[in-house]
Design a protein that fits this description.
Layout: H1 2-22, H2 25-32, H3 36-45, H4 48-57, H5 72-94, H6 97-104, H7 107-118, H8 125-142, H9 151-174, H10 181-199, H11 207-227, H12 234-239, H13 243-256, H14 262-284, H15 286-296
Length: about 300
Amino acid sequence: MADLKRQHRTGIALGLIGGLVISLDVPVIRFAGSDPWLMMMARGLVPLPIYIVILFAFKSFHDTPRNPFANITWVQVGIVYGISQIFFSVSVFNTSTANLVFILAFNPLMAAILSWWMIGERPKTATWIAIAVTMIGVGIIVGGGLEAGTWFGDFCALGAAFTLALAITLSRKSKTDMSLAPGFGGVVSGMFALPLVVFHFTPPESWVWVFANAALLVPIAAICLAAAPRFIPAPQAAIFYLLETVLAPVWVWIAFGEEASTETLVGGALVLAAIGGHSIWQLRRPLKTSAEHTQAN
């Protein structure tokens, strides 16, 4: 039981760290003042040497084999992460922020359904409640900002949510370390953006912030969030991605003086309460959850 509790604490800690780090993404990108395609390429390719160093020099921190490409699931997860990043970046150009944030909030629900279908890991009632509360919270945050007539951008946002949920579920199903798979996904998305950067290059306002985002925030958040499904169910791991939706407006408020609205604070409080409450509940029932996952596989 002690080992199971430790696993759940590890998974929750990884999700929490990853969610907190990625919540700093928006203000750092704004400080960078970069063209979105340049940022996408940098976020995909700059971290690659870091992943390679971790792979070969820090074996005690992960269980990824020296040749991860021999593991077909690892390759699949990496590609799916890359496709998710492409969908996300394209949706930014083609739909409103409110639509994007609202649609991405379906990620935990999709992860729950995929986990149930692909793994047989049926989410508990508390998980469904947490998902519902987070979606209500996000709905309050976006308020009346939803817009019609952006079907292509909305489709890409839906694709981003689905592929991210799929990557999390595949990671959970594998029961192996997928923490470095986003590094390969970054190569996929970075190479997609490279031609657009070459033909439409626009220098950023600050290269320092570009590299701070790409070399620090991206690998730390990606590694933590990708490792979490190894220890906790896919829907719970997916919920931690919503910390960015809640906390990014707060950091922007602090950094740029853009005061967060009452709707943002109320909706954010609901999301945080759902994440915190569900995490506490999960820690109180680690044995049953882990046993069911083992039987399902």
